[in-house]
């Protein structure tokens, strides 16, 4: 074998090895969660809230955290869409390409993306102190939406930037305003990417623990108001893992499994939705 | 050739940053004729065409001076509502860009944004203009399927129908057949010959033979300057300028 062929094979093997590392870490995580969580998995886990002494190994479930996490991540995702979409439409349809404002805004997304989530937690907490809001669903939604805003905006921006200028021109040439073009052409063309962006942000939001410690608090009850504290799955995992009781620790893994399944379901649903919109896209 | 002027370009200068794309162009474009803008690549043909519907507005660092009168109104007047100017013109681009929606919605898009809500009226419009662009019989059973599934040639005729549906007076074509196969090109060319009875047609083309087949009036640009313009037979058979002769013979391209 000549030298170039050997080189080719070495690098090919390295790439395959890297790919295997990714795939196997996903598998190992799933296996760990399932094996450790299975003994604790029962219907009560997903249908009941913690009863007295739950964290000591007595009866109950983590319905409070499941519902709480869905409320919180759902609310934060909704809030983040309301802000992200106008920002990226402004950057791509209205603002002058390559202007300082555009460059600086994109740079801010990157910086905000890198800010650790505990900082968002602390920041959200200081906003809450200022507004006089206690640890609550509302506080959590605000902190998590701040956390996922740059993620969502950046992901939406990437897809909207790829839309050819000529497609926008086609709409303008028909006498459409920028707003009509943004709403009816740009969002449709980018819809699969927008859905993916929303999903990534939701996944990040539902899985984050640090931003909700101070802001959302924790509660054994399902919140009936935006101003009540709310339990979240990541914190439920954290508390259960922190107990000295093996059966409660198993429940932590079961909770992690539930969290993983929620993210999986949302991924699948968004893929199906995205496919429905892809057929209209002109490459 | 006697004609009425539809678009009158007067001392038009266009700059991209420091680069001058159009140099002091003055020319009248005849009503209800096909005008071909010819010249080598990068000579400003598309810039001139896109200044007619002010699509050049959105290009960064652009500066425009001079006037373009459409029906006697200067479209670069700051008081002019640009969407109203654009409604007067249908555009066909080099490559067809169907909007990301169904065939039906593509045609109805323009009429809808200009205020037509009535379903029956929209149905009529869609049918009428698809017929006018010669696409109706190929798509009438799948009006609600995505426009992206059509062939490129069909997409270009869809774009033509979409442009006609806003009831323009002028059709602008920016090398409208350059992405099409010969058969589809022929169809589009044939449409133009039919449409010129009702519309003023302006096309940019780098295919001389196409210009000869279609044009009643010819504008020859070279490096942003207007070299020669006049009725097609004069420009092609007795060009006044040396540069035009050379371009037509294929010496410069």
Would you write up a description of this structure?
The complex is a heterodimer of chains A (283) and B (253). Chain A has 283 residues and is mainly α. Chain A is built from eleven helices and no strands. Chain A has helices at 3-37, 43-47, 63-94, 100-114, 117-131, 137-161, 165-173, 178-189, 191-207, 233-241, 246-278. In chain A, helix 3 crosses helix 10 (233-241) and helix 9 packs antiparallel against helix 11. The longest helix of chain A is centred in the first third of the chain and has 35 residues, at 3-37. With 253 residues, chain B is of the alpha/beta class. Chain B has a domain at 1-88 and 215-253: P-loop containing nucleotide triphosphate hydrolases (Rossmann fold, 3-Layer(aba) Sandwich), CATH 3.40.50.300. Chain B is built from ten helices and ten strands. In chain B, a hairpin with a 2-residue loop joins strand 4 (62-70) and strand 5. Chain B is globular and about 55 Å long. The model of chain B has no long low-confidence stretch (mean pLDDT 91). The chains are: A mainly alpha (283), B alpha/beta (253). The A-B interface holds A 96-99, 164-177, 180, 184-185, 188-189, 191, 279-283 and B 53, 55, 58, 60, 83-84, 86-87, 89-91, 93, 95, 97-102, 109-110, 113-114, 146-149, 159, 162-163, 166, 172.
Summarize this structure as a short list of keywords or feature phrases:
heterodimer; A: 283 residues; mainly alpha; MetI-like fold; globular; B: 253 residues; alpha/beta; Rossmann fold; 10 helices; 10 strands
From the spread of the alpha carbons, the general shape of chain B counts as globular
- Spans of chain A of at least 5 consecutive residues whose pLDDT stays below 50 are none
CATH topology of the largest domain in chain A: MetI-like fold
Question: Which structural class do the helices and strands of chain B define?
Answer: alpha/beta
């Amino acid at each position: 074998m000549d030298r170039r062929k050997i080189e080719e094979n070495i690098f090919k093997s390295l790439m395959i090895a890297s790919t295997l590392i990714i795939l196997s870490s996903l598998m190992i995580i799933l296996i760990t969660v399932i094996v450790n969580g299975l003994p604790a998995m029962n219907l009560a886990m997903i249908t009941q809230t913690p009863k007295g002494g739950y964290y000591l190994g007595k009866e109950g479930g983590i319905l409070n955290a499941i519902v709480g996490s869905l409320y919180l991540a759902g609310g934060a995702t909704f809030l983040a869409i309301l802000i992200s979409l106008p920002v990226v439409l402004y950057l791509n349809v209205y603002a002058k390409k390559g202007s300082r404002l555009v460059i600086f805004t994109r740079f801010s997304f990157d910086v905000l993306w890198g800010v650790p989530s505990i900082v968002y937690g602390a920041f959200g907490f200081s906003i809450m102190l200022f507004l006089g809001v206690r640890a609550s669903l509302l506080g959590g939604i605000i902190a998590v939406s701040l956390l996922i805003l740059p993620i969502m905006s950046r992901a939406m921006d990437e897809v909207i930037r790829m839309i050819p200028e000529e497609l926008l021109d086609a709409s303008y040439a028909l006498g459409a305003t920028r707003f009509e073009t943004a709403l009816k052409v740009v969002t449709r063309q980018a819809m699969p990417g927008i859905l993916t962006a929303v999903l990534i942000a939701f996944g990040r939001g539902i899985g984050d623990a640090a931003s909700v410690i101070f802001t959302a608090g924790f509660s054994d009850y399902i919140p009936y108001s935006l101003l009540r504290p709310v339990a979240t799955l990541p914190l439920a995992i954290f508390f259960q893992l922190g107990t000295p009781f093996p059966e409660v620790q198993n429940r932590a893994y079961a909770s992690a499994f539930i969290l993983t399944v929620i993210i999986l379901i949302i991924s699948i649903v968004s893929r199906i939705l995205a496919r429905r919109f892809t057929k209209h896209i002109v490459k | 050739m006697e004609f009425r002027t539809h678009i009158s370009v007067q001392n038009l200068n266009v700059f991209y940053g420091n680069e001058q794309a159009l140099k002091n162009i003055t020319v009248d474009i005849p009503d209800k004729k096909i005008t071909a803008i010819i010249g080598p690549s990068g000579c400003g043909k598309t810039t001139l065409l896109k200044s007619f519907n002010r699509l050049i507005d959105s290009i960064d660092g652009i500066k425009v001076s001079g006037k373009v009168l459409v029906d006697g109104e200067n479209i670069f007047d700051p008081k002019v509502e640009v969407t109203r100017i654009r409604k007067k013109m249908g555009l066909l681009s080099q490559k067809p860009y169907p909007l990301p929606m169904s065939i039906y919605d593509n045609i109805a898009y323009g009429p809808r944004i200009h205020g037509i809500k009535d379903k029956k009226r929209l149905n009529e419009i869609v049918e009428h203009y698809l017929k006018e662009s010669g696409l109706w019989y190929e798509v009438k059973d799948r009006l609600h399927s995505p426009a992206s599934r059509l062939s490129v040639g069909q997409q270009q005729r869809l774009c033509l129908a979409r442009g006609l549906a806003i009831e323009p007076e002028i059709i602008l074509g920016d090398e409208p057949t350059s992405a099409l196969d010969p058969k589809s090109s022929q169809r589009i060319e044939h449409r133009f010959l039919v449409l010129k009875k009702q519309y003023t047609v302006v096309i940019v083309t780098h295919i001389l033979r196409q210009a000869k087949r279609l044009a009643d009036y010819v504008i020859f640009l070279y490096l942003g300057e207007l070299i020669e313009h006049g009725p097609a037979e004069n420009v092609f058979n007795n060009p006044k300028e040396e540069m035009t002769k050379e371009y037509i013979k294929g010496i410069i391209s």
